[in-house]
Amino acid sequence: MNERKVIMLDLTTEFGQRVEKRLSEDDVIWFTTVSPKGIPAPNPVWFFWDGEEIIVYSKPDSYRVRNIQQNPKVALNLEGADALGNNVIILQGDASLNPDYKTIHPDYAAKYARYLPDLHVTMDELATVYTIEIRVRLPRVRGD
Questions:
Q1: How many domains is the chain partitioned into structurally?
Q2: H runs (alpha helix) in the chain
Q3: Residue 72: which CATH number?
Q4: Which of 21, 35, 64, 132 has its CA 20 to 30 A from that of 94?
């Protein structure tokens, strides 16, 4: 396997541009929080990259929200690694909870609108269940 780099998120580098492309185009990211007992809890989630932060919406009673309340440090992984461990992108950051957001980000809504008919739900209905907005600032990225 290749040696992994840990760097600040710099979108001007070739690697940074690849990260930004994946953040813009991928539909699912693995969002890992840590339980109060120190157990990592990864979950696949829909997300939106606004150019500075990753935005995720969550149910208020989720383990994800509880874990972030105890420890805001999170890791996010984009899928796509091959058998040799290439194409790995792991993002580390600090999550903040916003229970007072007014509407789902319009670009997030546009990104996932095509999936809503299969779920038999509208974006407005989704917003009434996923009432916590999570924002993750990404100071570090690891990968190759």
A1: 1
A2: 14-25, 63-70, 106-112, 116-119, 123-129
A3: 2.30.110.10
A4: 21
Q: CA end-to-end span of the chain, whole Å? A: 10
Q: What count of other Cβ atoms lies within 10 Å of the Cβ of residue 79?
A: 14
pLDDT in tens, 38-97: 999 999 999 999 988 999 999 999 999 999 999 999 999 988 777 777 778 889 999 999
Range of the domain at 79: 5-139
Q: Tell whether 144 is covered by a domain.
A: no
Nearest to residue 143, comparing CAs of 83, 84, 92, 86?
86
